[in-house]
Write a structure and sequence with these properties.
Blueprint: E1 14-16, E2 26-31, H1 36-46, H2 58-72, H3 80-86, E3 89-97, E4 107-113, E5 119-124, E6 130-133, E7 139-141, E8 150-153, H4 155-160, E9 170-174, E10 180-188, E11 194-195, E12 213-214, H5 215-225, H6 231-236
Antiparallel strand pairs: 1-2, 2-3, 3-10, 4-9, 5-8, 5-10, 6-7, 6-9, 11-12
C-alpha cells in the first residue's frame, strides 16, 4: 500500500497503524512540512501524479499565538527571536480513528498524555472525541467547532512559562457511526534549542519551577518513559 512507504526517521513519524499509544487508529507523522523540499518529498511519495496544493498556514497561526502570549506577559519586544526558536520545528500529523466495531460504547483510541510541543493545533471532521482531564478527575469532552481549530499548550510552553500555562492531560475516545479524521500541527523547537524560563516570569509568587534544558535531552528522556504523566516535572522540575 502506498501509505506504508512513508517511513519516519524519528519516533511517531511516518505511517503507523500498530502503535500501542494509538490503538485502533492509523496515523502519518510528517517532519518539517513547511520545508519545501520535505513537503515535496512527501507529496511525490503519496501522489506520484502530483498534488501541488498540499500546504498549510498553521505555522503562522502558531507563531501568532505565541506572540500574543508573550505580549500578554509584557515580553514581546525582548523575545521576538525566541518566538522563532520556539516554533522553528514542526510535526504534521494526519490521523484516522476508525469507527469502533461491535460496540456502542466509547473506545479509547489514544491513551491519556500531554503533548511534548509548545502548541498543538487541531482540526478535524465533524466526529468529536477529544477529552480533557479536569482537576476533579473527571473527563470532559472538548468539541472542536466546524471549520475551526482547538489549540492546546504542550510541555515545552509549560516549562518556558514557569508553569503559568499548564499542558492539559487529554485522550481520544470515540463512538458513533463515522470514522474520525484529524489534522494536527505540533510546534516545537529544534533539538539544540535551550528551554529557559525568562527571569521576568520568576518572582515571589512564582518561584522557579524548571531548570534549563535542551529540547533534545527532553525528547531522549521521553523515549525512556513513553507517555508517563508528569514526565516534564520528573525531567526538569526543581
Amino acid at each position: 500500500m502506498t501509505k506504508t512507504k512513508s517511513i519516519g526517521k524519528r519516533a511517531y513519524r511516518g505511517y503507523s497503524s500498530k502503535n500501542p499509544t494509538l490503538p485502533n487508529s492509523q496515523t502519518f507523522g510528517i517532519d518539517d512540512t513547511f520545508d519545501p523540499n520535505e513537503a515535496r518529498s512527501f507529496t511525490n511519495l503519496m501522489w506520484p501524479e502530483g498534488n501541488p496544493n498540499f500546504c498549510s498556514q498553521a505555522r503562522e497561526l502558531s507563531s501568532c499565538i505565541l506572540k500574543m502570549i508573550m505580549e500578554g506577559f509584557g515580553l514581546l519586544e525582548n523575545y521576538i527571536s525566541e518566538i522563532k526558536e520556539l516554533c522553528r520545528g514542526n510535526d504534521t500529523r494526519l490521523t484516522k480513528y476508525p469507527l469502533p466495531k461491535e460496540t456502542n460504547d466509547s473506545v479509547i483510541t489514544f491513551v491519556p498524555h500531554t503533548d511534548k510541543s509548545n502548541l498543538t493545533i487541531i482540526s478535524q471532521n465533524e466526529v468529536q472525541g477529544l477529552q480533557l482531564l479536569q482537576k476533579s478527575g473527571n473527563w470532559v469532552n472538548l468539541n472542536v467547532p466546524p471549520n475551526g481549530f482547538a489549540v492546546m499548550v504542550g510541555d515545552i510552553l509549560q516549562a518556558w512559562s514557569n508553569g503559568r500555562f499548564k499542558a492539559p492531560i487529554h485522550r481520544v475516545a470515540i463512538r458513533g457511526n463515522k470514522d474520525r479524521y484529524v489534522f494536527i500541527l505540533f510546534s516545537f523547537p529544534r533539538e539544540e534549542t535551550f528551554i529557559k524560563v525568562p527571569s521576568e516570569l520568576v518572582d515571589e509568587d512564582h518561584p522557579l519551577r524548571y531548570k534549563t534544558f535542551t529540547y533534545e535531552d527532553f525528547i531522549n528522556f521521553i523515549k525512556t518513559v513513553g507517555t508517563k504523566l508528569g514526565a516534564l516535572d520528573d525531567f526538569a522540575g526543581i
